Structures are given as C-alpha cells and as structure tokens.
Amino acid sequence: MRAHDVIIIGSGSGNSLLGPDYENLDVAIIDGGTFGGTCLNVGCIPTKMYVYPAEVAQSARELGPLGVTVDVDAADVDWPAIRDRIFGRIDAISEGGLDYRRSLPNVTVYQEHVRFTGPRTLVTDSGQELTAPKIVIASGSRVELPDLPGLDLPQVHTSDTVMRLPEWPARVVIVGGGYIAAEFAHIFHGLGAHVTQLNRSDRLLRGQDREIAERFRESAQDQWDLQLGWTPHAIVPADDGTVTVRSTRTAPEEDRRDAAQQSTVEGPGTREDVADVVLMATGRRPNTDLLDPAAAGLGIDPESGLLRVDEYQRVLDADGNVMDGLWALGDICSPAQLKHVANHEARVVAHNVIHPEDPVAADHRFIPAAVFTHPEIASVGMTEDQARAQHERVAVKSQAFGDVAYGWAMEDRRGVCKVIADPATGQLLGAHLIGPHASILIQPLIQAMSTGQTVQDIARGQYWIHPSLTEVVENALLGLDLD
Ligand SMILES: Cc1cc2nc3c(=O)[nH]c(=O)nc-3n(C[C@H](O)[C@H](O)[C@H](O)COP(=O)(O)OP(=O)(O)OC[C@H]3O[C@@H](n4cnc5c(N)ncnc54)[C@H](O)[C@@H]3O)c2cc1C
Ligand SMILES: NC(=O)c1ccc[n+]([C@@H]2O[C@H](COP(=O)([O-])OP(=O)(O)OC[C@H]3O[C@@H](n4cnc5c(N)ncnc54)[C@H](O)[C@@H]3O)[C@@H](O)[C@H]2O)c1
User: Fold this and answer.
1) Is the residue at 267 inside a domain?
2) pLDDT above 70 coverage of the chain, percent
3) Structural domain of residue 175, as residue ranges?
4) Tell me, what's the pLDDT at 251?
C-alpha cells in the first residue's frame, strides 16, 4: 500500500488546495476524468465562451428599435471556428495543469477512478492501494438522466458532449428547465439554430424568485419554441439522420390548449419534435455512489445523495459524528452546485487540513448565482416568497431597467432589479436581477449583504456614476419603503 501525507480525490476545485503550505507534504491527486474537472472542461468556462458570441449575435438582432439593422443568421456562424477557439484554449489549460502537477517533486497524480476500502484507505481501478492520514474528497457531480429509450443514440447529448459537436445542428431540442437548459437554449438560439425547449413543469428556473422566473419565461417564449408541461418518453431515430423526441403532456389544463396548437403532433396529450441534436439537461447528481461510501462509513444525505459535512467541511459519518482526517468540498457535498462555492470551500479545506486544531468555518450565508442567458439573471439571498414566509413585514421594490437613463439608451423593456429588505433594520434580505449585465450589477448588493451594510448605507453612502446602468440598483434601493 502506497502511503501519502494528503490525498485529494478530484482535480477540479480540489486541485486549487496546493498552495505554499503543501510544498513539504507528499500529496496525491487522483482524478479518473479530464484533469481540471467540470468547470474548466465541460462547465462554466466553455459554456460562457459560447454564451458570449451568442449574446453578441442576439443583441445585434435586437438593434431594430435603436435604428440599426443587423442580419445575423446561422449561415454567418462558423461553428467549427467557435468550437476550436474555445477548446484550443481550454484543452491546453487542462494539459498544462496536469503537466505542471506531474512536474512537482512532492505531488503524485493518479489518473484513475478510486473508491474507499476503509475510512482512510482507497483502491484505484487498476488495483493500486493508497492511504493517507488526511483525505480530501472533491469528486464533484455528474449528469443525471431519466430512464428513456433512445438516450444512446449518437444525436442525443448532455452538457459533457454537446459543446464538441462536429457539425452545426440546425434543429436542437433541449429537455429540461434549469440553468443548463436555459443557457444552452440561449447559446443555440443566439447562434441561429431552431431551438425547442421541452420542460416537464410549467415553470422555468424553479429556484428563482417568481417574478424573475416569469419574466424569463416570457423572454424565452419570445426567442425560441418553449414548450412547458411536456415529459419526453422516447427518442426515436429516422432514416434521414434526425431523431424525434416523443413527449407526453404533464401540465395543468389551461396550459394544454396553447401547447397543443403549436405541436407537430399526434393528439392533444402527446407531441413529437424532430431534431438534429437533442440535449438532455435534466440535472446533476453527486458522485458519492462511485466512492463506495459504505466501506468508509461516510454519511450520505438519503434524498440528495450529498456527502454530509459540518461547518468546517469535515466529513460526518452516518450518525453525524465528525470523521477523523476527512474533508470534502464542492458538488460532492454542496447543494449549491456552483464553482464559486466549491472554490470558497476549497480555501476553507486548504486551511483546515493544515490547521485542524484551529479550523475556519465555511460561510454559506449569502451564495449568489447567475444564469448567463439573454437577458442575464442574477440573484442572492431570499426570494420574495421566502422573505414573506420568514418575516412579518418586508419591503420590496422592483425597479425597471427601462426607468433609468441607460435603460432608455438600451430601450430595455424587460429588465428589473428587485430588492427585498427588512423595513425595521434596513438590512437587505435578497436581491434578484434580470436584464443586461445582471451578474455584474448585483455585486454591490452581495457585498452589502455579506458585510452587513444597510440599504441606506449603500444607497447614499457612496456616489453612483451617472448615467451608468448601476443607477437601476441605486433607484431600487431608494425605492424601498423603510421605517
Ligand atoms: C454545463 C455547466 C455549466 C456550469 N456553469 C456554471 C457557472 O456558470 N457558474 C458556476 O458557478 N457553476 C457552474 N457550473 C457548476 C460548476 O461547474 C460546478 O459546481 C463545479 O465545477 C464543481 O467543482 P468540484 O471541484 O466540486 O467538482 P468537479 O470540477 O466536477 O471535479 C470533480 C473531479 O473528480 C473526478 N472524480 C469523480 N469521481 C471520482 C473518483 N471516484 N475517483 C477519481 N476521480 C473522481 C471527476 O473526474 C472530476 O474531474 C456549471 C456546470 C455545468 C455542468
Ligand atoms: N450559471 C451557472 O451558475 C450554472 C450554469 C449551468 C449549471 N449550473 C449548475 O449545474 C447544476 C445542474 O444544472 P441542470 O440545469 O442540469 O439542473 P437543474 O436541477 O437546475 O434542472 C434540471 C431540470 O431537468 C428537469 N427534469 C428532471 N428530470 C426530468 C425528466 N425525467 N424529464 C424531464 N425533465 C426532467 C427538471 O424539471 C429541471 O427543470 C445546477 O444546479 C447549477 O448549480 C450552474
């Protein structure tokens, strides 16, 4: 059995642990997938590198009200050039990262999957046995698929494969209504494909504030063929190289009429959509099951499958007791499934592995998120429904982007900055934006919540540049009815 000082399972955010404190330790990094993990190889970074050209193209198409006409269609989109620019950069970073780690005298990289055989013993797929007094579990999550005939067809993809398509798909069917479905609908529509999005329920982006999700639904409906209340039950191939997605109605009666009218169809309760490519975006599950958690006695949340940890990111056993020498971070233990959360937890774990006697706690109070769609969405803290459920009184203001000077310049008609506060204390409870640059505009609100600044502090304790789009945030704050 090969013994190390520290073993890290997973080279996504797990790879960022290795700062100066680890230079004198014998460290193993184990990853059975592509070095660098999800965000770099198949997640945040390549998707946003696709979002950017899609966003520019879609914005160009919408210049009409500003007196400029630009004709952007799929014929102008060089898919191989876009794809190769993205992966030319990303693949090199992954390979460079792997080479660098391998070049370090104190680091051993194992490019295999691994599972536990005991609380601090592991075995790789090839049978190599490993042990360490300190093990960090950062083995992430993977795509979750429903049980559906046709998933093995070459036209059916997940976010892991769809970004490397050899050819441009003219018709794309996207299954799902979460972040991944929304961002890829924007990417393929923005670049000129015909997109049909099939969502099981009648609500997109479930975790979002209701008003924001509804505005996004309206916007999605204006852009692509959005079909709510349909559950795919089979994908069947045709001789011409296309596939047909067959779906069954799942939504309430009032939605049924509209969708049935647009459907290409067998009857009111079923529809068929023909596609060159189908993207299944039906969620992700933590990789805990691949680790043989029972062999180590790891505690797993039965509903979510997440590894259980305490506030110091120490792994808990099935009875909720802290396990000696085991820490976890990122998608394997975090319900948020966000890279900035994995990175924050990695910083916490990096410290706690070296200083277990003086641990720091993770701060999960105000986790922001953005959906990089057209328009963008960004949120932090409670939704209005959550705030009203938890507080007797709340102050809420939805400020339209179209009501501030830069919004006039953009002729924006859908964007809002919604702020929710406790009227007695002036503390922000939540903030939700939909509109251009939402992921940037929200940052002062995240900062205010994290540092405890009041609404009055942020609204009047600083200058806001005129006539920047940030005035929508300033005006939203000033519009709150506080005591
Ligand atoms: C399409 C897409 C877009 C996204 N966009 C965003 C975004 O814009 N913003 C954002 O914040 N988040 C985004 N995310 C989520 C983000 O990518 C993840 O939250 C983050 O990458 C999780 O990091 P991690 O270190 O926990 O896991 P990962 O980066 O997944 O690393 C885990 C590693 O462990 C390896 N592994 C798994 N099991 C084993 C095993 N048994 N043995 C050895 N190795 C193993 C895997 O191969 C993998 O490389 C996106 C995700 C996807 C899929
Ligand atoms: N911008 C970002 O931060 C970003 C972008 C992409 C992904 N992510 C992360 O990745 C995670 C996974 O994203 P996701 O969109 O795959 O998951 P999700 O959980 O957000 O959405 C899954 C969707 O699939 C649908 N679904 C599930 N089972 C189905 C079935 N059998 N038939 C039809 N529909 C079904 C659900 O109703 C839901 O709409 C997110 O939670 C997010 O944290 C983040």
Assistant:
1) yes
2) 96
3) 156-282
4) 53
Q: In terms of domains, do 130 and 177 share one? A: no
Residues 124 and 198 both lie in one domain: no
Task: Single out the residue of 325, 383, 321, 384 nearest to residue 352, CA to CA.
Answer: 325
C-alpha distance across the termini of the chain, in Å: 66
Predicted-complex ipTM score: 0.98
User: Which sequence positions are flagged as catalytic?
Assistant: 466
Residues at CB less than 6 angstroms from ligand 2: 146, 175-181, 183, 199-201, 231, 281-284, 337-338, 369-372
Q: What letter would DSSP give residue 267?
A: B
Residue with tokens 């014929």: 75
CA of 475 to the centre of ligand 1 (A): 37
Same domain, yes or no: 343 and 388: no
For tokens 């620019």, what's the residue?
A: 85
Protein residue with least CA distance to atom 44, ligand 1 = 31
pLDDT (tens digit per residue) in 459-469: 999 999 999 99
- Looking at the structure, do residues 337 and 381 belong to the same domain, yes or no? no
Q: Does one domain contain both 115 and 44?
A: yes
The preferred substitution site among 41, 44, 376, 442 for testing ligand 1, maximizing ligand atoms within 8 Å of CB, is 44
Q: Which amino acid is at 249?
A: R
331: domain CATH number is 3.50.50.60
**Spatial distance between the Cα atoms of 366 and 389, rounded to a whole number of angstroms:** 18
Please return the burial class of 330, using the count of CB atoms within 10 Å of its CB with bins 0-12, 13-18 and 19+: buried
The rounded mean pLDDT for the chain is 95
